[in-house]
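Standup notes
- DV: blocked on the single-chain target, sequence here:
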Amino acid sequence: MTHPLKNISMVELQIALSDTLQKLTNRACVVTVNDIDFQESDDLPETKSAQISLHLRFPPDLRDRDIPF
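- DV (later): unblocked, structure below
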């Protein structure tokens, strides 16, 4: 059985994570996925695991009054 994350592109994953974080934080967020390590377990062969290394950036909101000009 193929790992579910292998059915989507890296760009689709980054967009989905970015959209979700923007909704949760109410801030613009840029997500860069650096690496996905697909892991297999001999104990639970039907369980699909992956470790994701990513970088998150929250650019400043120019409408934020705490930012000096």
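- Follow-up: The CA atoms of residues 23 and 53 lie 21 Å apart.
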